[in-house]
């Protein structure tokens, strides 16, 4: 007991000393804004906050008038504070019209030098702030935040242009870097890969270009990587196998090329893999069959090539969405695809797939969309009638010239769009065989179609 009391005493003394130091350093004249019942705020911090906000909102915004106690009884929407050594400091700053009473940016927002004096700032976010007059990151002193900032977010700021400064690589406490739909350009700085605590890296919808550096594969704590909708090119670094914590990887709508590296299967917890709209080639990587956490696999619109046959699709028991449309696939559709029990969306359209469509797909309990149009599938569709009724237009099989619906299964107008009945397919084959409908063949044709029809009716 005695020991604990001594320790508590030491702690109190340390806090008192730290407060004294804090006062000496921060309040030049020992001056601070005291408020009854709450912690005080150092005057320099308070003025830095007002000036920083004024930089975004405009000179007409008078903080000291409107919010005399910003961390206490006159809180500012979008500003959060915390107590350090007995004084209030700003920890979160959210600028932009998220809510009715949010701080809305004026016509000429700037990064005031005072912003970078908020030394306990952990989270800084801008929504729809820099829209008209262009502004660049380099106008700010970002290294000042290296010891504190954990989250930095810019959404929908089309006026925010230029590259990501290399100084972002020094924000070593950063856990979340989100730069969505801004006007940013240039390459991705390699030293972002030094931000080892990064959990979320979202850079989508800008004009970033160049290659993804090897260092990005060292972000071993990363949970979400979204670099979609940029102009990134080159191959995926093999180091990506080091992103073992990743849950979501979205690189869609870039110009990335080369193989999908087999190391990708090291991402054992990955639930979303979206590489659509790129230039990936070299066939489907067999190792994707080891990614048993996958729920959405979207590889559409890539010249991937190869076939579906050598992958054990039944291993992907969590897969809900599989989109392989426009991927230059050839060969058949394996039965194992009908063993992915959670599948809801299967997109295989715009390929060169041939052979039959297994009727077992109709047994998938959750399947709501099946698209196989524009392929070379052939033969009679063997789904039960109820399947077509259930799916409607969400079963797309048109433009498979040799695929047909059994004659008499259902009225044509209720059958799948663009699929002929088997009788019509046979007739057209007969027509092709005999060339154009020359008069002399008409009686023969009539006879043959009668044979085909009676055969079908007999079944
Ligand atoms: C804000 O208002 C106070 C008191 O009304 C005034 O003294 C101060 O000069 C004003 N500041 C600005 C920047 O307009
Ligand atoms: C930027 O911030 C750092 C750290 O706070 C400081 O040492 C440096 O002088 C600042 N640079 C400028 C140009 O203000
Ligand atoms: C994968 O997820 C499991 C369960 O959530 C977790 O225990 C494990 O640490 C994760 N693996 C990695 C490499 O993060
Ligand atoms: C199918 O293959 C042919 C011949 O190789 C090719 O010209 C065509 O573009 C392919 N179609 C699709 C959708 O990949
Ligand atoms: C099928 O393909 C042809 C030729 O490529 C095209 O004209 C037609 O619009 C496509 N769609 C349907 C439903 O037939």
From TrEMBL:
<keyword id="KW-1133">Transmembrane helix</keyword>
<feature type="transmembrane region" description="Helical">
    <location>
        <begin position="6"/>
        <end position="25"/>
    </location>
</feature>
<keyword id="KW-0472">Membrane</keyword>
<keyword id="KW-0812">Transmembrane</keyword>
<feature type="domain" description="Disease resistance R13L4/SHOC-2-like LRR">
    <location>
        <begin position="168"/>
        <end position="411"/>
    </location>
</feature>
<dbReference type="InterPro" id="IPR032675">
    <property type="entry name" value="LRR_dom_sf"/>
</dbReference>
<keyword id="KW-0732">Signal</keyword>
<dbReference type="Pfam" id="PF23598">
    <property type="entry name" value="LRR_14"/>
</dbReference>
<dbReference type="InterPro" id="IPR055414">
    <property type="entry name" value="LRR_R13L4/SHOC2-like"/>
</dbReference>
<protein>
    <recommendedName>
        <fullName>Disease resistance R13L4/SHOC-2-like LRR domain-containing protein</fullName>
    </recommendedName>
</protein>
<keyword id="KW-0325">Glycoprotein</keyword>
<keyword id="KW-0433">Leucine-rich repeat</keyword>
<dbReference type="GO" id="GO:0005886">
    <property type="term" value="C:plasma membrane"/>
</dbReference>
<keyword id="KW-1003">Cell membrane</keyword>
<dbReference type="GO" id="GO:0051707">
    <property type="term" value="P:response to other organism"/>
</dbReference>
<dbReference type="InterPro" id="IPR050647">
    <property type="entry name" value="Plant_LRR-RLKs"/>
</dbReference>
<keyword id="KW-0677">Repeat</keyword>
